[in-house]
Amino acid sequence: MDSFFKLMNSLIEINETDRTLIASLLKPKEIEKGTILLKQGDMEKSVAFIENGIFRHYSIVQDGKKIITS
């Protein structure tokens, strides 16, 4: 979570009270390689901050090929 607050502090000033409140709402989660987090058309109800690792965003076109967009 330190990297999250380091990034946030580079954008806005967060006092200790707010930092404590935000930290109490965050839930660290480890995601296994190959896990699909969101499919096209799904509505996401949360926000993710990637602390370590890589996520891939792609679309599957009509012929079944993956088009990697990030």
UniProtKB/TrEMBL annotation:
PROSITE patterns: CNMP_BINDING_3. Residues 10-70 form the Cyclic nucleotide-binding domain. InterPro entries: cNMP-bd_dom, cNMP-bd_dom_sf, RmlC-like_jellyroll. It comes from the Bacteria. SUPFAM superfamilies: cAMP-binding domain-like (SSF51206). Gene3D superfamilies: Jelly Rolls. This is Cyclic nucleotide-binding domain-containing protein. It comes from Niastella populi.
